[in-house]
Amino acid sequence: MKGIVFTEFLEMVEEKFSPEIVDRIVDGAKLASGGVYTSVGTYDHAEMIRLVSCLSKETGIPTSELMKVFGEHLFGRFSVLYPRYFEGTNSSFSFLENVESYIHVEVRKLYPEAELPSFSCDASEPGHLRLTYQSTRPFAPLAEGLIRGCLAHFGENADLQIEDLSAGAGTAARFVVTQRDARRE
Amino acid sequence: MSSIEQLERRLERERQARKAAEAIAEEKTREIYDANVRLQQLNNRLEELVGQRTTELAAARDEAIRASKAKSDFLASMSHELRTPLNAIIGYSEILLEESEDLVPSELRPDLEKIRGAGRNLLGLINDILDLSKIEAGKMDVFLESFDVVALLDEVGATVEPLIAKNGNALTVNCEAQLGMLRSDPIKVRQILLNLLSNAAKFTTKGRITLTARRRGLSGGDGVEFEVTDKGIGMTPDQLTGLFRPFSQADASTTRKYGGTGLGLAITRHFCRMLGGDVTVDSTFGEGSTFKVTVPDIDSDTALAAPQPVWEHRVVGTVLVVEDGREATKSLAGPLTQEGYRVITAGGGADGLRLAREGTPDAIILDVVNPEFDGWEILRLLKTDTDLCDIPVILVTVLDDRDMGFALGAAEHLTKPINPKELLRLLARVQRPEVAPDVLVVDDDQSTRAMLRRMLVKEGWRVREAANGAEGLEQLARAVPAVMLLDLMMPEVDGFEVLRAVRQAAAWRDIPVVIVTSKDLTRDELEWLRGHAMDVFQKGAYSRAELIATVRAMVDAARVASSRMVPPGRGGG
User: Fold this and answer.
1) Looking at residue B16, what is its pLDDT?
2) Count of beta carbons in the 10 Å neighbourhood of residue A160
3) Three-state DSSP state, B504
C-alpha cells in the first residue's frame, strides 16, 4: 500500500482525535515499520488494518465506519495533492469512470509495483453508475468512503447503494450511484 | 507517558521517515540518471545508424542515377542501332512491293507484305518501349505549335485507312466546321489518335469506327474533344480497371488473340496528361467502346514557344488564291505560308483579275464552284488575257470537272477537301523547269543510302551520295544540290556539324536540308534542328511516300526560288 495512505491516515487521526491517539495506535499496532511512513514509500497493507483496528479500540467506533470516514477525507486530500487528475472532469460520474481507465494507468507508470484494486464501471443506464470493486485486500469500506468523498467534492446529490459481493470479507462490492434527479423520474 | 516523550517519539518517526524518503529520492535519482545514460547511448547509436543508413541511401541513389543514365544511353543507342536496319528492311520491302508487280512472281507478294508488316510492327514496338521509358524517365518533352485540327484529322484518317480496312471496317470522321487551329503538340495528338484508332480497328470486325472532333470549353480554357467509337468486342467493368496501366491488356487471352504489348493506352494516357488533358473510356462488353480525349489549347504565354523555323521567312513564290473566303482560304493559306509562299487572297472575280495583274503571282489557285462568283468565267478571262494567260491555274472544285478545266486551260486540278501536301506538289509541278534536280544523300549506312537512292531516282531525280559528314561537305563544295538528305549520327563529322557548316556558308545557306535519322532526339536537339533544317524525319516512323512528298516539295520550292532569281524571259512567271 502506498505510503500516502498511511501518512494521510495518521494526519487525519491527529487532526480529528489527537496526537496522543496517534502515538498510542502506532505503539499498540506493533508495526514492522515502527510507524515510520513517507508518502513516497510502499508498506504492507496489513499495517493499515492493524492501525484502524487499534483506532477502533481506542475510540469505540467500528472499523468499517472509520475506513469510510478516512476514505472521504482521503478523497479531499487527493484533490489538493493531485489536481492534474481532476482536469477535464466536472462531475462525479466522469471522475469515477476515469479511475480504472486513466488514474490507475497513470499510477502504474510511476509505481509499477503498486497492487491496485480493479474498479470496473458501467454507465449504460442514464443517471446510474455501477462500480464494481475487487481487490485482494479488504478495503471495500475505504472505497465507499472515497466515492462519498467524490460526490461531496463535486457537490452532487446522489444516492449510493452498496452491495457486498464478498460475504462480509470486504474484498468485493458493487456500488450503485444514482443521481437524485434520475431517481425521481 | 509524558508528552515530551510522546513528542520525542513522534520526532524520531518523522526523522526516520525523512531519511527513508531521502533514500527513496536518491534511489529514484540514480534510476533516472541511469535511464538517461541508456537513452543517450541509444540516441547516439541511433544517430550513428541514421548516418550509416543515409550514406547507404545516397550510395544507392547515386547507383540508381548511374543505372538510369546507363539505361537511357543504352536505349538511345539501341534505338539507333535497331531502327537503322529496320528502316532498311521496311524501305526495301516497300520498294520491292511497288516493283514486284512486274518483276517478282505474284505469289511472293504476300511474303513481302509480311516482311513489311512485321518490320513496321517491330518498329512500332521499339518506339512504344522507348516512349514509355522516356516518359518514365521524365525525358518526354512537349513541343508546342499551332496546327490545323482538320488537316491533322485528315492525315490521321489517311494513315489508319489501311489498318481500318484490314478487318473490313469503315472509318467515319465527323468534325465541326469551326475546329480551327489548336495550340498543343501535334505529334503527340497524332499518336494519341492513331493509338486509339488502331485499337478500335484491331478489336472490331466489319463494323464502323467513328472519329469525332468538337470544340469544347475545358477546365482552364478552350480545347478540342476527340472521340473514337467502335462497335467491337467491348470490355467488362473488370477489364476496364487497369486498362491504362502499361503491359496490361483486358486479359491475357486478348494478347494471344489480338497481339500487341498493351503499351499503347498507357502511352496515350501519359501523352494526354502531358498535354493538360485526359483520356476516358466507356465500354459495354460485346457492344463496343468509346474513348474520349480532351486536348486543351495551351496558352502561348504560359508555355514554351517552339522556335520559328528560319525557313518560314524565305519566300519561294507568290500564290494568288481566288475563293469565296468562307472557310477554306485559311486552310489553304496555312500550309502555303509554311512552305515559304507569299499568299494573296481574292474574294471575288473582279478582285481576282486585278490581283492577278498587280501581284504577278507564280500560280493561281481558283475555286470554280462557289455561290459568290463564277469561277469558270474567271478562268476563261485569265486564259484569254495575253498578260495573264501564262500564269498556271490550279482549279479547286467539288465536282469532277477535270476535262472541262483542262479544256479551258487549267494546269492542274484539285478536289475538295484539299490535301495540303497534294496542293504543294501540284503547285511545284506547274512551275517546274525541265532540269532533273540533284539530291545529295549523306548517310554512313550503305543500305540506307542505297535505299534512298532507289526511291529518289524513281522520282526522276539525280542522286549523289556521301558516306560521312566530311564527304558530304566535299560534295557540297563540288556542286550545290537542290536538297540534301542528312543523317545525324556519323563517324568523324556528324550531321550536326555538317548542318552548322552549311548554315554558316553564304553559298550553302539556302540549301534545304531534310534530316533523316534514327537517333532518338532530345528536345534541345529537335528544337535546334527545327531552326536549322527544313524537316526532320525521326524514329523511322515515316512512310516512303511521306519522305518523297517532302523532298519533292523542297525540290520544287528550290526550283521556284531559283527560277525567280534568273532574268525575266527565262523564268516561269
Assistant:
1) 93
2) 14
3) helix
Do B534 and B553 meet the contact criterion of CB atoms below 8 Å apart? no
Tens digit of pLDDT for each residue in B505-560? 877 888 889 888 877 777 788 888 888 887 788 655 666 777 888 888 877 776 66
Cα distances (angstroms) measured from residue B228 to each of A37, A79, B145:
90, 77, 24
Chain B CB contacts of A37 below 8 Å = 17
Measure the CA–CA gap between B314 and B545, rounded to whole angstroms: 25
pTM for the structure as a whole: 0.43
**Do residues B191 and B271 touch, judged by C-beta distance below 8 A?**
yes
Residues of chain B with pLDDT under 50: 300-314, 432-434, 564-573
Q: Which residues pair with B465 in a beta bridge?
A: B441
Query: Percent helix, strand and coil across chain B, each rounded to 5?
Result: 55, 15, 30
Q: State the smallest CA–CA distance between residue A114 and chain B in angstroms.
A: 15
- Inform me whether the pLDDT recorded for A13 exceeds 90: yes
Q: Is it the case that residue A54 has pLDDT exceeding 70? A: yes
Whether the CB of A112 is below 8 Å from some CB of chain B: the reply is no
The confidence score (pLDDT) of residue B71 equals: 78
**A23 interfacial to chain B (CB closer than 8 Å):** yes
Nearest Cβ partner for B20 among A22, A23, A38: A38
Q: Which residues of B touch A22 (CB under 8 A)?
A: 10
* Nearest of B288, B295, B163 to residue B229 by alpha carbon: B288
The residues facing B107 across adjacent strands are none
Coil/strand/helix, residue B469: helix
Mean residue pLDDT of chain A comes to 91
- pLDDT of B308 reads 35
Q: How far apart are CA B558 and CA B315, in angstroms?
A: 10
Q: Does B236 touch chain A (CB under 8 A)?
A: no
CB contact under 8 A, B21 and A39: yes
Given an 8 Å threshold on Cβ–Cβ distance, is B18 in contact with A38?
yes
B21 touches chain A (CB under 8 A): yes
Q: Which residues of A touch B21 (CB under 8 A)?
A: 38-41
Q: For B221, left (φ over 0), alpha (ψ -120 to 50), or beta? A: left
ipTM, two decimals, is: 0.80
Contact B182, B144 (CB under 8 A): no
Task: Check residue B18 and give its pLDDT.
Answer: 93
Answer whether the bond into residue B417 is a cis peptide, omega within 30°.
yes
Closest CA to A160 of A62, A82, A63, A68: A68
Residue matched to cell numbers 488575257: B385
pLDDT category at A83 given cuts 50, 70, 90 is: very high
Q: Å from A75 to nearest chain B CA?
A: 23
